[in-house]
Automatic annotation (TrEMBL):
The chain holds residues 129 to 501 of 501 of the full protein. It comes from Scleropages formosus (Asian bonytongue). One of its GO terms (molecular function) is DNA binding. The gene is POLM. Its EC number is 2.7.7.7. This is DNA-directed DNA/RNA polymerase mu. Its cofactor is Mg(2+). It comes from the Eukaryota.
Length: 373
């Protein structure tokens, strides 16, 4: 069967929010390679280069079939010279020398391990790397000062490396629901992030919390957190700092939203936490497998009037969000997880559903399962 991807070549939009990107796609070998280069560019604080590689990978994810020949890429957006060189080498030789060299480089491996610690970004990891730190274990005996988040990150490093399953996410959803019900009748929780896009595993679990009566949600989070106290290994709660009128146009919406939120680490009791491997007979098993698993959980509280924007902003993927905001900008609008502002009409555009926001933006609606850009 000769059904190459060329059919969509001319119609593919340059913005991720113009394309349907399913979770399962046909070009994983190529996208894995490009995403490793993107990750490495992040580790070298080269954001422009990182985004370029991510965009290219995202375009390949949206193709209806596997790329077999370079000619099939003609007319596709976001595929620069460097990306094409990498793709060509993989198509011809099965692997890219640049990717393999990067993958095995000491800098890449150390930065991957260090940025894999909860609470550690590229800047900190790079400082530690320059000081000879290569692995989280090196931090335990070092003189390097860790903040509270990083101490938790090192302590639960091995737990948090293990992907969270959908079953674990659902179990945590039940627990959070019980906590929310106990402190505010009628409050609602919604699973967002990668799990809402249909992923079967994730690095964390993301929830939005709201209440149908605007204002009732204020101050909810500290109560929820205190109800959950015994189940939380770590938590940092921030207040809501969003003010609509003052926020615009004095300062354009930043990527970082200002909702009341909590970054936490849950102590999830087994058997809901999936066992890495079934306990073997003899000494292994019960003694070595703890009865719980540490899981990263993000809780975000939104006033109901901002719910649709928060839902759209927290469902991701990150590249999809980035391109939504860029698309809005190019249309003379400004989109955040709180609101959509029309810069020409000088007014906020209200919405009570994601569909309405896509319509305001002049975009075809893309359901969550096809936002895996
Ligand atoms: N997000 C955000 N502000 C943050 C952190 C995340 O707005 N401070 C948004 C991201 O843009 C993303 C969504 O929240 O759209 C989920 O982020 P994250 O949990 O990091 O990614 P997932 O897509 O859920 O992937 P994973 O399965 O690895 O968790
Ligand atoms: Mn390169
Ligand atoms: Mn997530
Ligand atoms: Mn998250």
């Amino acid at each position: 069967a000769k059904s190459g991807p060329s059919a969509v070549t001319n119609t593919m939009g340059a913005y991720a929010c113009q394309r349907k990107t399913p979770l399962e796609h046909h070009n994983a070998v190529l996208t894995d390679a490009l995403l490793l280069l993107a990750e490495n560019a992040d580790f070298c604080t080269n954001e422009g280069r990182s985004v370029a590689f991510k965009r290219a990978a995202s375009v390949l994810k949206a193709l209806p079939g596997p790329v077999r020949r370079m000619e099939e890429l003609q007319g596709l957006p976001c595929l620069g010279e460097h990306c094409q060189r990498v793709i060509k080498e993989i198509l011809e030789h099965g692997a890219s020398s640049e990717v393999e060299m990067t993958r095995h480089s000491e800098h890449y491996q150390a930065m991957k391990a260090l940025t894999g610690i909860f609470g550690v970004g590229v800047k900190t990891a790079e400082q530690w790397h320059r000081a000879g730190i290569r692995h989280p274990a090196d931090l335990v005996s070092s003189e390097h000062k860790l903040n509270r988040a990083q101490r938790a990150g090192v302590e639960y490093y091995e737990h948090l490396r293990v992907p969270v399953t959908k079953a674990e996410a659902d179990r945590i959803g039940e627990i959070v629901k019980r906590a929310v019900d106990a402190v505010l009748l009628g409050a609602e929780i919604t699973l967002t992030g990668g799990f809402r896009r249909g992923k079967q595993t994730g690095h964390d679990v993301d929830f939005l919390i709201t209440h149908p009566d605007e204002g009732r949600e204020e101050g909810l989070l500290p109560k929820v957190v205190s109800w959950l106290e015994d189940l939380l290994l770590y938590q940092k709660t921030n207040k809501n700092s969003y003010l609509e009128a003052k926020e615009w146009p004095a300062r354009p919406p930043s990527n970082m939203d200002r909702f009341e939120r909590c970054f936490s680490i849950f102590k999830l009791q087994r058997p809901w936490a999936a066992l890495e491997e079934p306990p073997q007979s003899g000494e292994r098993g019960a003694a070595e497998t703890p009865g719980w698993k540490a899981v990263r959980v993000d809780l975000v509280v939104t006033p109901v009037s901002q719910f649709a924007f928060a839902l759209l902003g927290w469902t991701g993927s990150q590249l999809f969000e980035r391109d939504l905001r860029r698309w809005a900008g190019q249309k003379g609008m400004s989109l955040s997880s709180h609101a959509l502002y029309d810069c020409e009409q000088k007014r906020y555009l209200r919405a009570t559903s994601e569909e309405e926001i896509f319509a305001h933006l002049g975009l075809e609606y893309i359901p969550p399962g096809e936002r895996n850009a």
